[in-house]
Amino acid sequence: MDQATAPFLSEQDVGVLRDLRHALHRAPEVSGDEAETAGMIAHFLAATDPDRLVTGLGGHGVAAIYDSGLAGPALMVRAELDALPIAQVSDRPYRSMHPGKAHLCGHDGHMATLAGVALGLGRQRPARGRAILLFQPAEEDGSGAAAVLADPAFDSIAPDIAIALHNMPGIARGRAALVEGPSNCASRSMQIGLSGTTAHASSPDQGLSPMAALCELMPGLTGLGSGGTLDEDFSLVTVTHAAMGEREAGIAPGSAELWATLRTLTDARMGELVSRAEVLVRAVAARTGLGVEIRYDAVFAHCVNDPRAAAILRQALDDEGVPHDDSLLPMRASEDFGRFGTRARSAMFLLGAGETHPGLHTPDYDFPDELIVLGARVFTRAIRNVLG
Predict the structure, then answer these.
(1) What are the tens digits of pLDDT across the range 195-227?
(2) CA distance 364 to 352
(3) Are 199 and 205 contacting, i.e. CB atoms less than 8 angstroms apart?
(4) For residue 228, how many C-alpha atoms fall within 13 Å in the half-sphere facing its CB?
């Protein structure tokens, strides 16, 4: 079948979905601020007449439920609402109108893809069970999936199966990648504050500088995990930010800040890495007489594709004639979709955006419009295969 067509979508539908994607692209909102985006999505979904429309889920999340009225499994498909705090470089007529913010990860395209699935479900309900379309907030900072799961309203949705996609530059356009087992690493930002006392720059001995500790911790932390093969022992520590003292020539520093991103293939390995990192930081601080504070941000659990959920996606890809392999998987990058695996059988696949397409999170990235229909076809096929 032509990638640009689907039996449940007319040419007019495809134009509407493309226009929706461009409208979302023009008005990007970052994690936690997706109110207008959620409103636009809820308005579109309401026109498809779902049996339930849930808003304010885990923040600005939106879920549409299409219920057969008969017993059967509940299958959820997820997309993301949020954009990135990165300035876009583009001359496209639908470029971002919000300075310093842009859809440079393709979440606008993922939303338009699910909107295409919604059009089909609005015209033909599943034969059994329930189909759920979730538009999740705050994926980029790692907080959204956890917030959705913690929301009591999610209990009434309760999917048995959860599936998703992410577009991926570096894979030929129209091809897919899928694997059973680990697909995305766990990661978190370790943010360390070191406190001593300032002094006049002419008398640094009268203060307590964090300089030596900072210089020891940067190589010490990176030495705890140097990457390598993505197996169960994989760990990587990347220093992402360091600052010390004031921007003032007359003051010897009395404080420092160090950020390091910890990354492992599995949650279990992450627990071990966190413990080792904290032991190192506290030992260096104690030895140098500094106060220390450690906090964590952007905490992502590992993403593991359940074999049964992966089989559903594999069958849908095969049925739709989409070639696939395990290219680029598992990935070092993190994805908070993995948290849904604690409540449902979950799996995600990658949909190729083009081997030479600009990379995710780069200023000139743009989601390829032709992937909207292809993604909608795969998801709709998965829903029909499971729910009829």
Answers:
(1) 999 999 999 999 999 999 999 999 999 999 989
(2) 17
(3) yes
(4) 10
Distance CA 200, CA 226 (A): 38
Which segments of the chain are extended strands (E)? 52-57, 61-67, 74-80, 130-136, 161-169, 176-177, 181-184, 186-195, 199-200, 235-244, 251-252, 255-264, 291-300, 303-305, 324-325, 345-354
Structure tokens at 169: 């530059």
Task: Compute the distance between CA of residue 175 and CA of residue 168 in angstroms, rounded to an integer.
Answer: 10
Q: How many CA atoms lie within 13 Å of 28's alpha carbon, on the beta-carbon side? A: 28
Tokens of 349: 């696949």
Q: Is 95 within 8 Å of 103 (Cβ atoms)?
A: no
> Distance of CA 205 to CAs 25, 251, 253, 254, 291, Å?
55, 12, 11, 12, 18
Query: 213: which 2 tokens?
Result: 């500790």
Q: Is the pLDDT of residue 1 over 50?
A: no
Q: Are 314 and 179 in contact (CB under 8 A)?
A: no
The structure tokens listed for 312 are 């559903």
| Exposure letters 141-172 (e unless 16+ CB within 10 A, then b) | bbbbbbbbeebeebeebebbbbbbbbbbbbbe
| pLDDT tens sequence across 219-267 | 999 999 989 999 999 999 999 999 999 999 999 999 999 999 999 999 9
**DSSP-based three-state secondary structure for 197:** strand
Distances (CA, A) of 55 to 23, 65, 154, 284: 20, 12, 11, 48
Does the pLDDT value for residue 5 go beyond 70? no
> In which element (H, E) is residue 196 found?
none
Tokens 């909207």 belong to residue: 372
Token digits of residue 385: 């295969």
pLDDT in tens, 141-170: 999 999 999 999 999 999 999 999 999 999
pLDDT of residue 159: 98
Task: Tell me the C-alpha distance between 292 and 213, whole Å.
Answer: 11
